[in-house]
Specification:
The chain is of the alpha+beta class. It contains 14 helices and 25 strands. Strands 17, 18, 20, 21, 23, 24 and 25 form a seven-stranded mixed beta sheet that branches. Strands 4-1-8-7 form a four-stranded antiparallel beta sheet. Helix 10 packs parallel to helix 11. About 40% of the residues are buried. This is Protein BONZAI 1.
């Protein structure tokens, strides 16, 4: 087995890693569900593309069109994803070849679809061997992957654009001034590639376990593994360790069909006696599929464990110890994309730190300095990069925007003022509206302090609560950008604990050179779950904190680091409230 758990304390509490991962002493007991939720929006999407009303505008004869799909890399270069087959003699082709692209929530994935007229005498041409510069370019369309998956039917119709310099039809050559740019419509349809959304909950029990310790009873735990084609066992789930038990009943474990392959795929369930040195003793095992475990549950009977003998894997010693299935239930776990297709939206909010520690905005060393060259400062860059990702998921693109820690002209210090200067409403139009309001605020407030998060979190929670009361299909995301450590730590904790019951996540970016160690306590990934001054514990983790300096020079962008957990926070909220997407 090797080192299943790193230490006694961690091992006793551990519920092991998910499919494809090593054993993880910090993982959740709901392995399959946790894996499902923490997929972070990484879901394969399959494309079917059709073209309507296209070539008849430009061609006197029918074409042999082929589609090439590209994705833009971070440096702007186009990376080819794949090619379709060639459709012979068609003005309105529907391609059969489908392309699989992994959807990443935290990245803006720009797709480019280019159509070529293939000039070849062969009917069964290998499209991978075709040189594109030898084919006639017919047109292209561009969109982001998020624009497709946020559509209710996951279909998006795009305008095809034909570059003027490539137009060669007789009609256009006779009248160059009449060269149109748009040349038809291209429809892209996306489907989620997922084997099954069904998750099985199991409560497993063993009886009469052989004692492996000389002076005490066993500390047993189970490891469930799938068998791949090579015969290798890959762990997909593990129970907690129960101390001093010979008849253990473990807490529920969850298995997703996508993890194990199918309901009939063989699984190895091994029972081990925990040892703090990591060399755990095998007590016994069984080989059963999920379908077999369902039958065991229905019959109420147990299955005897066995141990391999020295003679080989085909020779087993049958033990008196038995495995029982006390619970077997199946449920559907919806994905993030299911909720988007069902009409749910993410509503973006932003709060900007205007405390004096940012420095005089008129001086170049200030974090709020507005560079005449147009180069964005740290606050502007954070708004642009996060907003670019989130705005697609908000249909009206009206974003609440606040400032805190400043003194409006002839007024007291405010810890939550409308960035647009209005006394009655806080929303602005789109990301450009946030940028304009931010610039205007810098000229109309005096930087002050201290740094308080409580008021802006409470305002965001109020909006989220009102939406919840009105049964809105909305989930809110508040971005707080700050240059310093919060000074109302307990009040902030109280506000966050209260907000943890609402459809709200909070993203915090730390800018500047401050030491943000104390801020990490707000992020449950880096510490204990938050507790309020009254002793109430947050129902879930809703905070993600990233210091800008930690990631700005690395391979991962600020946006990726900050938004990584948002889909899982969204799904955790929906699951705990039993909210299902409409179909």
């Amino acid at each position: 087995m090797g080192n299943c758990c790193s230490d006694t304390g961690g091992g006793m509490a551990a519920v092991g890693g998910t499919a494809g991962l090593s054993y993880n002493a910090a993982a959740s007991s709901n392995d399959a569900v946790d894996w499902f939720l923490k997929s972070r929006g990484y879901l394969d999407v399959l494309f079917l593309v059709t073209v309507k009303n296209y070539f008849e505008k430009f061609c006197l004869i029918q074409s042999d069109p082929m589609l090439v799909v590209y994705m833009k890399a971070r440096d702007g270069a186009l990376v080819e994803v794949g090619r379709t087959e060639v459709v012979l003699n068609s003005l309105n082709p529907t391609w059969i070849t489908k392309h699989i692209i992994t959807y990443q929530f935290e990245v803006v994935q720009t797709l480019v679809f280019r159509i070529y007229d293939v000039d070849t005498p062969f009917h069964n041409v290998d499209v991978k061997m075709l040189k594109l510069d030898e084919q006639q370019f017919l047109g292209e369309a561009t969109c982001t992957l998020s624009q497709i998956v946020t559509r209710k039917n996951r279909s998006l119709t795009l305008d095809l654009v034909r570059r003027e310099e490539t137009i060669t039809s007789i009609t256009e050559e006779s009248n160059p001034s009449n060269r149109p740019k748009h040349c038809g419509k291209l429809t892209v349809h996306a489907e989620e590639c997922i084997n099954s959304k069904t998750t099985t909950e199991l409560i497993l029990r063993c009886s009469d376990l052989d004692c492996k310790d000389l002076f005490s009873r066993n500390d047993p735990f189970l490891v469930i593994s799938k068998i791949v084609e090579s015969g290798t066992h890959i762990p997909v789930c593990k129970t907690e360790v129960l101390k001093n038990e010979t008849k253990p009943t473990w807490k529920s474990v969850f298995l997703n069909i996508q993890q194990v392959g199918s309901k009939d795929s063989p699984l190895i369930i091994e029972c081990f006696n925990f040892n703090s040195n990591g060399k755990h003793d095998l007590i016994g095992k069984v080989q059963k599929s999920l379908a077999d475990l369902e039958k065991l549950h229905s019959s109420g009977q147990g299955q005897n464990l066995f141990l391999p003998t020295a003679a080989g894997n085909n020779n087993h010693k049958i033990l008196n110890s038995q495995l029982f299935v006390d619970k077997f239930s199946e449920s559907v776990q919806y994905t993030f994309l299911d909720y988007l297709a069902g009409g749910f939206e993410l509503n973006f909010m932003v709060a900007v730190d205007f405390t004096a520690s940012n420095g005089n905005p008129r001086l170049p060393d200030s974090l709020h300095y507005l560079d005449p060259s147009g180069r964005p400062n740290a606050y502007q860059r954070a708004i642009l990069e996060v907003g670019e990702v989130l705005q697609v998921y908000d249909s009206d693109k009206r974003f609440p925007a606040w400032g805190f820690g400043a003194r409006p002209i002839d007024g007291p210090v405010s810890h939550c003022f409308n960035l647009n200067g209005s006394n009655s409403y806080c929303e602005v139009e789109g990301i450009p509206g946030i940028m304009m309001a931010y610039t205007s605020a810098l000229h109309n407030v005096n930087l002050a302090g201290p740094t308080l998060f409580g008021p802006v979190i409470s305002n965001a929670a109020l909006i989220a609560g009102q939406s919840l009361a009105n049964h809105g299909q909305k989930y809110f995301v508040l971005l707080i950008i700050t240059d310093g450590v919060v000074t109302d730590l307990q009040e902030t904790k109280d506000a966050l604990v209260k907000a943890s019951d609402l459809p709200l996540s909070i993203l915090i970016i730390g800018v500047g050179g401050a030491d943000f160690k104390e801020m990490e306590i707000l992020d449950a990934d880096k510490g204990e779950r938050l507790e309020s001054s009254t002793g109430r514990v947050a129902s879930r983790d809703i905070v993600q904190f990233v210091p800008l300096k930690d990631v700005q020079n690395g391979e991962i962008s600020v946006v990726q680091a900050l938004l990584a957990e948002l889909p899982s926070q969204f799904l955790t909220y929906m699951r705990t409230r039993d909210i299902q997407p409409s179909t």
